[in-house]
Amino acid sequence: xxxxxxKHSILATGTAILAVFVMGSLLxxxxxxxxxxxxxxxxxxxAKGVDAFADYVKEKTNGEIxxxxxxxxxxxxxxxxxxxxxxxxxxIAALTTAVLQNFVPQCAILDMPFIFPDRKTAYATLDDxxxxxxxxxxxxxxxxxxxxxxxxxxxxxxxxxxxxxxxDDIKGLKVRVMNSPAYLDTFKQLGASPVAIPxxxxxxxxxxxxxxxxxxxxxxxxxxKFTEVTKYVTRTQHxxxxxxxxxxxxxxxxxxxxxxxxxxEAAKLCIDTNRTVNAALHESLPKINLSIEEYAKANxxxxxxxxxEEREVFRVAMTPVWDKYREKIGxxxxxxxxxxxxxxxx
Length: 346
Prior knowledge:
Blueprint: H1 3-26, E1 34-37, H2 45-60, E2 67-70, H3 78-87, E3 92-96, H4 97-100, H5 119-126, H6 129-136, E4 144-154, E5 156-159, E6 174-176, H7 181-189, E7 193-195, H8 202-208, E8 213-216, H9 218-223, E9 232-235, E10 240-248, H10 249-254, H11 257-283, H12 292-298, E11 302-305, H13 308-317, H14 319-329, H15 331-343
Parallel strand pairs: 1-2, 1-3, 6-7, 6-8, 9-11
Antiparallel strand pairs: 3-10, 4-10, 5-8, 5-9
Helix pairs in contact: 2-11, 5-15
């Protein structure tokens, strides 16, 4: 090849590389598939809600934003995913406030035991725009943009020792709880011995007597077969396992205003779907086709529904826990939430 030919080839190659570089610099910073992680199993309402979120965004952006959902902790545990979102390596995640309070302490307000008198009041409070604006305002400076809710469920108490109707009935029991300060403090205050055993080890721990009890939504307890080894179920509904849909700051800022609005609309669809599916699961357990009450009766599981007066005794017993977290959360947010809950009480 002549030298002039070689020079021409090098020049052409260099021009092509430059063109690719320039074109690449004009592409969106997050071109390609966007990831959305969470820990719920695929059949759960939370997973169905996240899938609805992804479908809505894809439809409304005409396929420009394609979100891949990763259920059941495929992208790691909740703390890991929170750190990934902070770092910008994961674009979106739905994470429990029990975990997020380690990053955003104000989240602990939603984990206060017995703060919500019932499910309807909880939903009405959380859907209040002022509540969302207040709580979500603490997220950006911690590396998150909060855009909506998902949920696991309202938590109940199961044990293999005795029926539980009062705080005294819990005293002395070894209870598996989530590894969250608010949950550990709650059961210490009730006189139990809380143990932060990993969730997958809960069944064996109950079966072998390492623990006497555990607290999870009754739906979870049945599906995970915890009720095979804990025949007493008390619908304490002590905490709502609420999750926040968080987006990495860098990814959020790469979206147009119109796309950000689509994400907020998708977040609303997500929680509506989440709640609807969970309610349906209560009426027809997957693969079992029985309601929770029918399943309990067929399997000699005793379900105890607390009266409003009995729940009030539990709430009063939680006063020291509330006082402790009031100092961490601040009077302003704590009183704001109590006022909102009272205003939305059904």
